[in-house]
Amino acid sequence: MLDRLRISWFSNIRADVLAGITTVLALIPDSLAFAFIAGVNPMISIYSTICILVLISIFGGRPAMVSSTAGSMAVLMTALVAQHGVEYLFAATILTGVIQLAMGLFKMGRWMSFVPHSVITGFINSLAILIFISQLRYFEGQSWLMYAMVVATLAIIYILPKFTKSVPSPLVAVGFMTVTVVFTHLNLSTVGDLANIEPTVPFLHIPNIPFTLDTLWILLPTAFSLAIVGYSETLLTQTIIDEMTEKKTSKDKEMKGQGIANTVTGFFGGMAGCALIAESAINVKVGGRGRLSTLVAGLVLLLLVFVLDDVLNSIPIAALVGVMMMVCIEIFDWNYFRTIRSKPAAHTAIMLITVAIVVATHDLAIGVIVGVLFSVLVYAYRSATQLQIKEEQNGDEKVYRVTGQLFFVSSDKLLDRIDFNDDHDKICLDLSATHVWDHSASKTLDKIVERLSAKGKRVRVKYKTAS
Fold first, then answer.
1. What is the DSSP string of 174-239?
2. pTM score
3. Which entry of 9, 260, 409, 441 is 20 to 30 Å from 38 by CA?
């Protein structure tokens, strides 16, 4: 037990600390943007991010995966805040956490195994595109200095590792650009221009709402939607980070951790969050591997808000945009397109459909759901086409030997192959090499037997022998 704790917390101290500091730089503008989307005070999002980071580092199932407030969840909060106020948002956050905790306790993490690799690839690529698009708003009305600083930031990020990897290059890039802006007084937008960071201490807070059944019905649709979106994005991100680190982790434990984090955050006047692939990718790529990295990220953000608020407000947006552009480049699956000719056409189509849906709707959950549905349809079609029916003669008995999967798509194929006017009096349906999956297939078999029997034929059905 102690050895596991040491490995998950203190086996990578230096790299985890630096990774946590670097990750905060990407979290700051996003946290502020998510507050604007939800229609709440920016400090609510900042404190929620701090709270979620600290709690998920302790209770989460995937070390080094970054959880925070999220744009996909903030969109779902807008109507509730506008119609009923921020207190209802706090209550919805608590209820979201409770639902996610139940998901973890009931081991619903296994459901992510139904998401095929083509959809995961589409999820990653569409997210890279959305991140890129989201950064374009910071260029509006800006001079050439903005473009120059973004390019300079990217240059430092990619050139510095050729000389030294002792310090994460994104951290050096943002630090250098901040010092440059402060001492040269360049006319560039900073974090302080996005929102006025005024530190206030959050306290334990019971949402000021009527505790009635009507209130529950108001909260439940939003809370359930938040829980589902948080579930899908968190576990998809976990799958990707597991692949990046080549270490499989518990999805059920992660959902329990997310549930605890969101529940507690709601009681401290916060908004619900989930795992973020961009920030998680940054954390892992600059060396974060343990729980310490996300804890440091939360504590450093707290330090920036309370002690170093002048430094926080001075960070140029251009430098942070450069970091996010680096994330787009790094997480996009370029290798997939280099080898696209070797991929199955259906795999590529599902990936492209997932990307198109996500980019069109700006909703990752919808894209994933549509991608999974298309994958199911492709699998059903392939299974149906692979059903084989051979007609054989066994003495005076006509045998239909069926091989493959018999279900609602393929069962009509069997029905069409049966010759109900055959001269044989004895008919055998040999299903020993097939599996009857659903009610539709069973009803089709019943229909075949009834029609053959009505023709005066003796029908024998041979099923697979139980092992």
1. HHHHHHHHHHHT----BHHHH--------------S--SHHHHHHHHHHHHHHHHHHHHHHHHHHH
2. 0.78
3. 260
